[in-house]
Amino acid sequence: MTNEQGGRRAEAFADLNLLDITLHGAVAHVRLNRPAKRNAINDALVDQIRTFFANVPQEIGAVVLSGAGEHFCAGLDLSELAERSVADGVIHSRLWHAAMDQVQFGRVPVVVVLHGAVVGGGLEIASAAHIRVAETSAYYGLPEGQRGIFVGGGGSARVPRLAGVACMTDMMLTGRVLDAHEGQLRGLSHYVVAKGEGLAKAFDLATKIASNAPLSNFAVMQALPRIADLSQSDGLFVEALMAAIAQGDDAAKQRVRAFLEKRAPKVEKR
Ligand code: 1HE
Predict the structure, then answer these.
(1) Which of 43, 106, 171, 219 is deepest in the core (most CB within 10 A)?
(2) 124 belongs to the catalytic site
(3) How far is CA 238 from the centre of its chain?
């Protein structure tokens, strides 16, 4: 069975009813699918995100993540917040952390398509992805300050690594909303494309990513952010280990030989 994007429905994930999951060769497309609630993330959806990213099918080399409807994601489902105790709040935040860690440190890179509202927990999940493609309709906000709460889905660790502590402080204290271009200038997205073009761009990028050697992708996903958190001396030591492991793999040997034998493309400016 196929969906409107022409992918094969991933029947193994039929229970994940808040996600629309289709497989397109080596790329899986995962769509947050609660458009009536602007893809607000309730507990069930957090759990489904964690489950999918912990079980990415073996044939998949990259994931495209997007949101159904006019908005990428309205953040935490606020209707579930009201009755939570302090102790339940800590556990709830840790469930988000587990799901967002699974996105960032799962098996394959994730390209996210951002459009409309990318707010609160929506920005938190976007910042756990590896590549962010924003349509011009995208806007970024952290309304937690206005709602009397704090980020709880990993935002305080991930957003400053993209946009800086000063930018996040401004967004949370003043409610400042950044448009797609301001977001790109701040490092919140890698690409800005016209309305309606985000998915095609993301598939293009994800297809390229999926054709990389798996160990190179692993190193970028797992080693790079950790090295960035280390002292330079420790980071360089880890880099040497990771470089040697990647170089030693058959895929690296074949790819380097292909270049030397003029069978692989050169680096070219666009
Ligand atoms: C929601 C949510 C939600 C919409 N939780 N139900 N996030 C926020 O503070 C953002 C709140 N949402 C909005 O500002 C707006 O909904 C949007 C700008 C995203 C979209 O506006 P619009 O006019 O297209 O939609 P709407 O009419 O506001 O919402 C449509 C429905 O979705 C409506 O429900 P209905 O039953 O009346 O139809 C809304 O109540 C519902 N809805 N957003 C619950 N967030 C891990 S900690 C993370 C902390 C945070 O993420 S805090 C930020 C929360």
Answers:
(1) 171
(2) yes
(3) 24
